[in-house]
Amino acid sequence: MKNYKTVKSFDDLIETEHGKLGTESRNQYEEKSQMFIISEMLKEARKNANLTQEQLADKTGTKKSYISKLENGKGNVQLSTLIRIFEIGLNRRVGFTFL
């Protein structure tokens, strides 16, 4: 049973549920969280551009099934492909922040 009495912030909750940064459980959580964020950003940007998944795939040289997987957080994405989808397919700039 996990001890939630010491949880006072969201960061405390994540640490209680998934462990400290660098642990396998926490790394998996962080990776899935980032993929979820990317998938939601992609979905929103595509809809704002009034494109279907198929139209976006055609513009970027990918397949509709690949776009669908990304939007559902199921696929692995190469950085170069992600940049191409956002910059060429959706006319959006991509920036990165490393912490």
TrEMBL record:
Q: List the residue ranges forming a coiled coil, or say none.
A: none
Q: Which InterPro entries match?
A: Cro/C1-type_HTH, Lambda_DNA-bd_dom_sf, TransReg_Diox_bact_type
Q: Which Gene3D superfamilies match?
A: lambda repressor-like DNA-binding domains (1.10.260.40)
Q: Give any Pfam family that matches.
A: HTH_3
- Cite a GO CC annotation: cytosol
Q: Domain named HTH cro/C1-type: which ranges?
A: 42-85
Alphabetic keyword roster: DNA-binding
Q: Which GO terms describe its molecular function?
A: DNA binding; DNA-binding transcription factor activity
Q: What is this protein called?
A: XRE family transcriptional regulator
Q: Which organism is it from?
A: Flavobacterium pectinovorum
